[in-house]
Request: fold
Amino acid sequence: MISLEMGKIRAEAIGEVQEAVDIADFCVGLSRQLYGLTMHSERPRHRMYEQWHPLGTVGVITAFNFPVAVWSWNAMVAATCGNAIVWKPSLQTPLVSIALNNLVRRVMSEQDIFQPDDGDPADVFTLVIGTDETVGQAMTDDRRLPLISATGSCRMGRHVGQAVAGRLGRCLLELGGNNAMIVTAEANLDLATRAAVFGAVGTAGQRCTTTRRLIVHRDVADDVVGRLSSAYAQVAIGDPLNDETLMGPLISRDAIERMKQAIETAVEQGGEVICGGVEGIERHAERRGYFVEPTIIRVPPGTDLPVAREETFAPILYVFEFEQLDDAIAMHNSVDQGLSSAIMTDSLREAEMFLSHAGSDCGIANVNIGTSGAEIGGAFGGEKDTGGGRESGSDAWKNYMRRQTCTINWGDQLPLAQGISFDA
Ligand code: UN1
Reply:
């Protein structure tokens, strides 16, 4: 159903469902680990600790590209923390959302964990299908949803962030990425090529973690571009349910239009189309479905390519060159978004440099792994215009709870903190 509705290939759709299964497994363990700290009180015969309570009902807004996984790592963690969920999925993937919500409601109905007065366990998970303007706006404005977790474009996030901040609510934002992979002269180029192809072509370039920029050392740039173009020539484009297919269609005609515009702008700004391009789009124009060809655009050294600073949700890979790693890192960090990043190198020094405070400024930093395909066990999200939120594993659960600091006086005196004396 994922493949039918949004077009990613079957293998990746199965991977996405696996991601939901994995987060469900994770949550089973998490349910025993919602730990609070205890701390020693400065006052005698006092005990101090913190505990975590549910927020109440959490609003989850998701995008079309991961209709199952993104809901799962929000809703399952939120439910594990004791919350109920109102889900607004993308209008482009209503069927998957209805199916998934019905599935989870059926599972909940089979539980007898609730007392009769608590209501119907199935209502922990609710779904509202509608536009951003009606449903989205109603959710962001509603104080009964103390947390809005939203995944989507930076533009959408800015809107949601401001609306929720306006009522002093809490936001968890996972917005756009403009992820780059640095390939140094010390890289295993076979690994680098495979990682770049999966990162740039996978999900037809429609992941927030998609590799959009390749920053390659001058000495290996021709080699890397050559390897990439041969790999791109092998990419079978077509029916996502056909096992041979590596790249399905884009989500909509508008998405094709945006891809075309980005390519045209890149060429105007000095980029050179290595493969795909506007011609690649035209080659598929007669097909049913929004098919395009994955595109590589090489950027002549010294050329500034402003369009590469924008996230175009399409399989366009911009290839830049560098000489010094410092410069590569500066180029890497020069975009507004800060989600995922990667360096391909066998040099320990280069890898550690990339992971140091002076290295990647992203929420995710990988060595010898591409920018996409994160595991659920870690916290997922990014910095800068990506919105700063962290979802999924690690201690991301804390976002879905409220912390309470508790102090108990078990003595018969009333000593004041900071030693203040206040006796009448
Ligand atoms: C997204 O594109 O919104 O790391 C999520 C990845 C996947 C999730 C992507 N695990 O590419």
Summary: Residues 10-30 form the longest helix (21 residues). The domain at 179-367 is CATH 3.40.309.10 (Aldehyde Dehydrogenase; Chain A, domain 2). The chain has two domains: 2-175+387-408, 179-367.
